Amino acid sequence: MRTVRSRFQPDRQLTARMLVTLFLLGLLYVAFIAVLIVLLKSWILVVVIAAGLLGAQYWFSDRIALYAMHGRLASPAEQPHLHGIIDRLCTTADMPKPRVAVSEMDLPNAFATGRNADHTVVCVTTGLLRRLETQELEGVLAHELSHVAHRDVAVITIASFLGVIAGLIVRFALYAQLFGGRGRRDQNTVVLFIAVMAVSAVVYAISFVLIRALSRYRELAADRAAAMLTGRPSALASALTKVSGDIVRIPTRDLRTAQAFNAFFFTPVRGSGAVLSNLLSTHPSLERRLDQLAQISARLGKPG
């Protein structure tokens, strides 16, 4: 998979992991569609629905994410400080400037989404802008821009599609069973319902684990790339510590709204006291990220 030409350090391990994940999910997707065609006996319906949803997610992922997070595009006149930082980073990285958006949420976070470098948006919340100093914000934005340069934003968007399809099919099957007729003549329907639910659950579970494994590594890769581009890993570490500490103070309602986009965020959204195993988390632990940044600081000969 080709990365966008920029001065962000290429990460061959990230590229290899993205290729392997897409390959495995592709095989899983083909098998899933084949099983659904056999069970539902209507390949046209399955293919049309699958293609339609994939196209919508690929072409409109940026608009969907902005709408869900109450974000809007911001002009340089509206956000001169934010645009100034992104302009400097894009010039340093020698990469196209993405669109810039702001979300009116107190939740301190940022994310990048879009199908390619020419159709990407970087969004930050007003909560993040209020909390971070300029160098800390620069580190966070460099982290998000590295996702664009490495093209893992598009890969995560496509990879998450299979889990979305599986979840939707479970819901459709459930609604059909709940509102369908009952009786002996529906015994075959019950068997079909159970089979579709079982297959969809297995597919969702496998795709869930694969996507999260890739997501954890891509966050470490983005931290490394941002630290090397800015030359200030300590500023990024400071932003990580500050944002992670403040998220637990955000109202639960706002956290629930944002949790669906965890894989895209700078730091994961978790409620107070939530404990997620490494296998299920979209991000590596804060300790691991800070330890990596400390090692980079040592190599650069700067204080951690």
UniProtKB/TrEMBL annotation:
GO molecular function, one term: metallopeptidase activity
Requisite cofactors: Zn(2+)
InterPro entries cross-referenced by the UniProt entry: HtpX_protease, Pept_M48_protease_HtpX, Peptidase_M48
Compartments reported by the entry: Cell membrane
Gene3D superfamilies: Metalloproteases ('zincins'), catalytic domain
Residues that bind Zn(2+): H143, H147, E219
Family, similarity comment: Belongs to the peptidase M48B family.
Gene symbol of the encoding locus: htpX_3
Peptidase M48 domain segment(s): 76-295
Principal location class: membrane
TM stretches of this protein: 20-37, 43-60, 153-178, 190-211
List of catalytic residues: E144
EC supergroup of this enzyme: hydrolase
Its EC number(s): 3.4.24.-
Keyword terms of this UniProt record: Cell membrane, Hydrolase, Membrane, Metal-binding, Metalloprotease, Protease, Transmembrane, Transmembrane helix, Zinc
This protein's name: Protease HtpX homolog
Organism: Actinoallomurus oryzae
Cofactor stoichiometry and binding remark: Binds 1 zinc ion per subunit.
Membrane disposition: Multi-pass membrane protein
